[in-house]
Amino acid sequence: MNRLPLLIGRRLWQLLPIIVFATFVVFALLQLVPGDPAVTLAGDYASKERIEEIRQIYGLDRPLIVQYGTWLWHAAQGDLGRSLLSSAPVLDLIMQRLPNTILIAVYALVIAGIIGIPLGVLAATRVGSRLDAFVTSIASLGVALPSFWLAILLVANFSLALHWFPATGAQPITVDPAAALLHATLPAVALAVGVIAELARQVRSALIEVLGSQYYRTLRAKGLNPAAMLWRHGLRNVSVTLLTIVGLQVNRLFSGAVVIEAVFAVPGAGQLVAYSAINKDFPVVQGVVLVLVVIVILVNLTVDVLSALLDPRAAEA
Amino acid sequence: MTALAEHSPIRPRSRAARLWRWMRSDVRAVLAIAYLAVLVIVSLFAPLIAPYSPLEQNVANLLLPPSWEHWLGTDDLGRDVLSRLIWGAPNSLYASLLAVGVAIALGVPTGLIIGFVGGWFDEIVSRFIDALLSFPPIVLAIAVTGALGIGLTNAMLSVGFVFAPFLARLVRAQTLTVKNALYVDAARGFGASTAHIIVKHIVPNAIQPVIVQVTLMLAIALLAEASLSFLSLGVQPPAASWGGMLARAYNYIEIAPAQMYAPGFAILLTALAFNALGESMRVALDPTMKRR
């Protein structure tokens, strides 16, 4: 068990270049803006003195690599600058909204797991059957379905027509968990559909591979109970693949959340980044992108470590 | 339909017969191609096909339900929805092709070069690709669009940039497997130049999964365009786009609920068609997945 710290340490070491490059990409976003970064950061209608002041504060007259180092140093301490629109600290803005996004994303992942994994298992154990064809076509549909359109349809039917769920807004889960879940249900369902499709597809193909393998056939020849075999040998061998797939879905969830939050007027991180991008509030855009990419990298680190614990072969890699 | 008969040299089939045979064996692909062909024609001839101008406003006809004059009704400014749907097609196709084109232009050469050169250069660029793949794609695309300036072309350049690392990684992996093949060694033995080897041997042998991936990417690009236009980062009003139409319709969902169907179906069907085409190509091009 004491190989765990070693494992985490090694993964972190491997992740280091990725973290450096990813943060550099976030930093470089500002450089993509046409024109002088100092003018951009000073906002509209800034005086010449203000622009010069900004240049001094951010050190924009120094070499790019020094600017990056300074920015990263501040970011690591939680200083992501201030919003150009509200002049509130960027980190505060993000932290107010991030819980709403996380709630929807986790909720969606749970829904997707409960529906998507059994669908994949059912299809894999009955390859070529009608059920398999049904699951495969549902999966194709789910991948092509624009999630925000589904969100609109859900609002039309379950909020406006049936009044089952609130159409807009969010509630903090710490205050009233029931109300929070009620508000998050439709956004989570809209977000989950694409993930359900992906999970069902991947679980199906991974399990088909295991079921066709030599050792599985040997076990079957020994006359083991098929249901127990599926559970003990089939799904267990799929679990590592499953973990990796779930890790990859985090990206999809955050991407989808941006648009879904707009439909349901959820004050989340996605809405913040879209609003800030339209209104040229670049420190906020950079802040949100940075926080989300750090979350994705941490989730993947966790997935890596868990996979290594589940499957000793993965630890060697 | 035995494999023997299919590859028999004795009875070579005519081109038409083989085409017919393929069409019957893969109805899904035929439907997808037919739908996309219609979409391309509609896009090219939108000005001739659309019954009204997509921009013509009419305050007397706000949010009308479907009728003989306006098959899909009118929007909140009295514009004909069918005409806007038709004019949205070229924008959506342009957006998908532009994004995927950018992804190919950036991703394929990068993947080829790092796969071929290898060593520390490959190591560094691959880590950079991993870093780019860590970003939630739409979030990064929004950020890049915001930096470049909002609008359809910038939005799709951003989406293409976000897609490029996926292609680069795929092409790199393909290049690595092909690079050590015997025929490449043979070509090198005959004194072929690196450029010759890449163009004549590596590209043709590594390209098939890339073609499949590119087709599937068209669907993702279409959905990305719709999302970004829905968020008003893509196609700018008054120009028509399916995502933008949904955003407008959503504002009036309680008055004119029927308006949210047509643009959504247009996006769904087009994405399905690209995906179906990609999946069929995967089966057709993959030698290990022989005819069912």
Write structural notes for this entry.
The complex is a heterodimer of chains A (317) and B (292). Chain A is mainly α. In chain A, 79% of the residues lie in helices and 0% in strands. Chain A contains 13 helices and no strands. The mean pLDDT of chain A is 86. With 292 residues, chain B is mostly helical. Chain B is 72% helix and 0% strand. The radius of gyration of chain B is 23 Å and the shape is globular. The termini of chain B are close together. The chains are: A mainly alpha (317), B mainly alpha (292). Chains A and B meet through helix 1, helix 6, helix 7, helix 10 and helix 11 of A and helix 6, helix 7, helix 10, helix 11 and helix 12 of B.
**Main sheet of chain B, how many strands, which sense, barrel?**
none
Number of helices of chain B: 12
Assembly classification: heterodimer
Low-pLDDT regions of chain A = none
Estimated radius of gyration of chain A: 24 Å
| Cα-to-Cα separation, first versus last residue of chain A | 18 Å
Secondary-structure class of chain A: mainly alpha
- Which of globular, elongated, flat, extended, rod-shaped describes the shape of chain A? globular
DSSP, total strands of chain B: 0
Order of helices and strands of chain B: HHHHHHHHHHHH
Tell me the number of helical segments of chain A per DSSP (H or I, 4 or more residues long).
13
pLDDT averaged residue by residue of chain A:
86
Portion of residues in helices of chain A? over 70%
- Class by helix and strand content of chain B? mainly alpha
